[in-house]
Amino acid sequence: MFRRDDAVPPVGEDIGGLYADYQWKRDRVREAADCDMVFVNLFAAPFGQPMKYPSTSRLSRAEADRDGLRNQLTEAQDDLIAARQALRTMMRDQNRSEH
Q1: Entry pTM
Q2: DSSP one-letter code for 51
Q3: Which of 1, 26, 46, 67 has the fewest beta carbons under 10 Å from its own?
């Protein structure tokens, strides 16, 4: 069985350090302990619950604006939306062909 501790992401120390800081903050929110999602509510209710897409999008855009990466983020989000739509279409078509 896969455990969270088994994965070692291929990132540098700077990203690893930022994630460690986030994990430290997250560990202080009791409600977040059992959530496997990356983005969880740490500072607003409902605490420890997965953040919804609009909230993570706003957070990502704010960070990208701060770091001057808005265009790259927008392109990545557009790619994600297109991939999600293609997957939904494929699943719908597969369900139709099975019935």
Answers
A1: 0.46
A2: P
A3: 1
Amino acid at 99: H
Give the pair of three-digit tokens for residue 32.
């977040």
Estimate the crossing angle of helix 53-67 against helix 70-98, to 10 degrees: 150
21-50: pLDDT as tens digits = 888 888 888 888 888 887 888 888 888 898
Contacts of 59 (CB under 8 A, 6+ apart): 39, 51
Q: List all residues 6 or more positions away from 27 whose beta carbon is below 8 Å from its beta carbon.
A: 33
Residues with Cβ within 8 Å of residue 77, at least 6 apart in sequence = 57, 60
Q: What does the block give as tokens for 47? A: 């605490």
Task: Please check whether residue 27 is in contact with residue 33, taking contact to mean a CB–CB distance below 8 angstroms.
Answer: yes
DSSP 8-class letter at 32: G
